[in-house]
Amino acid sequence: MVETCAPPCNGLSESVGRGFRFASESFVRLSYLSPYPPLMQSSEEHIEAPDPGTVPTVSGTMESGRPAGGWIVAGVGVMLGLVLMQVLLLLTLNDTKNELSALQDDVASLDGSVAALSDDLEAVAADVTLSVSQSVEGAGASSIESPIQTAPAGYLPRFERGVADAAQGMRLGAIEGVDGYSNEATTIDPADGTRRVWMIWAHWCPYCQEELPHLNDWYPTVADGFDAELVTVTTSIDESRGNPLPDYLTANQFPFPVIVDGDSQMAAKMGVSAFPFWIITDGDGEVLLRTAGLLSTEQLSGLFEQLDALDS
Question: What does the pLDDT look like over 209-219, one tens digit per residue?
Fold first, then answer.
């Protein structure tokens, strides 16, 4: 007995047939995407190749019938080119980084050279400005309180030992007072062209009473040999502290000017902070050195010699 398929079996056969035909057509289409010729064609039906100008591709058509392998090679070449460009860019960036690093090193080296040059210039300036100093430090001094806490214009700042003197390079203003022997008003302009060593003292200061007799004996023996001049200013007058000034001046006829600063304004103007106090000025009134304390005659001689040497 010959069995026949019921309608469901016929539908299955038709579905299988359609699937087979679709697979065959797909194989033929894919064969055009390969650089190699198709391996087979359907034996059941003839499928004509599409027009060479419109070879089917997965996404549509391929121009001019160019095999897919050529496009793949071209794509790979493009990708390799991009990779090469990135490598070259990285190498260029690395070279630029190295150049920037070298430039930074050069700048740092230049900064060091500029700093060294600045230090050298400051050292030269210090040698010029402090050529009369010889690192002079007094052996003893009597401290005082300044009557003026904030120095007005034209006044030197208060002297502080152990720190750089802010008054160096500033100009000392006119010194006014009364002559200690004639009682006449007197004024000395530090900028009158004469180089000077100024000593500021107080009648009650024991260090001053020790220093002045040495000056009294030493200065007459050297005064004619120096162009610089010694001038003294007595200030901070207080009779209650002993050694009254009038009697002291009468007993000691000093061979150098003594200017009496009755209201201590000149002491404030000079920035005096202790006695005895010393200021060295050039012919323009510029402050070259300030110090406080006892100075030996050897130190004073060195100061005068260096003042005289400023023009040489």
Answer: 999 999 999 99
- Count of CB atoms situated within 10 Å of the CB of 204: 20
Amino acid letter for position 169: G
* pLDDT at residue 38 greater than cutoff 50: no
Position of tokens 């100075």? Answer: 295
- How many of the other CB atoms lie within 10 Å of CB of 207? 20
Which residues, 6 or more positions from 128, have their beta carbon under 8 angstroms from its beta carbon? none
DSSP assignment letter at 153: T
Cis peptide before 244 (omega within 30 of 0): no
Q: What pLDDT score does 123 carry?
A: 43
Alpha-carbon distance of 295 to 279, in angstroms, equals 12
State which H helix or E strand residue 73 sits in: helix 68-129
Closest CA to 187 of 289, 252, 266: 266
On the question of pLDDT at 241 being above 60, the answer is yes
Q: What share of the chain has pLDDT > 90, as a percent? A: 48
Q: Give me 293's structure tokens.
A: 């304390």
- How many degrees, rounded to 5, is the angle at CA 133 between CA 131 and CA 135? 120
Residue 102, pLDDT score: 79
Cβ contact 214:255 at 8 Å? no
pLDDT at residue number 6? 43
